[in-house]
Amino acid sequence: MELRRILLAVDDSDCSGRAVLVAREIARRAGSKVMVLHVRDRQICCKGPAWETPMTCTPEAFIGALVTDLRNAGVDAVGEVRSSLNHHEADEILAGAEDFDADLIVAGRGRHRLSLGGILEKTTSRKMVDRSRRPLLLVP
To answer: Which of 21, 25, 32, 93 places its Cα 20 to 30 Å from the Cα of 15?
Structure first.
């Protein structure tokens, strides 16, 4: 399988950090271009204002640092930040993979989360497994 383009979906979790290392090594060996994608999820409840989970830096700074690190390691990399509403990050990641024409999607395998009603919700990675038409590598 030729890996010309890798979409690396990231957030600020530990498993995402490990996915960066895996994607970097695959890209270096295969000579692949990497698109680093971060999806900011905005949540809206009961017609109130939307909110986002806080980060220690801006999403653009976060992606910029990862792209710089990949380039310093000899990987051709670009970055993008997208938005989603109410836990549709998987849809945005898969749309990004289509737009980038990715040969492989690399992401961290996330933890389950509870929805507002206390119901166990599918993780973004589980949703990607269910919906992806492209090869997907999930890093624990």
So the answer is: 32
- What's the whole-model pTM score? 0.85
Rg of the chain in Å (alpha carbons): 15
Q: Which of 82, 87, 81 is nearest to 50 (CA)?
A: 87
Average pLDDT over the chain reads 88
pLDDT average, residue stretch 124-132: 92
- In one-letter notation, the amino acid at residue 87 is H
Distance (Å, rounded) from C-alpha 40 to C-alpha 82? 6
Number of structural domains (the chain) is 1
DSSP H/E element including 105: strand 104-108
Contact 104, 9 (CB under 8 A): no
HEC-encoded secondary structure of 58-98: CHHHHHHHHHHHHHHCCCEEEEEEEEEECCCHHHHHHHHHH
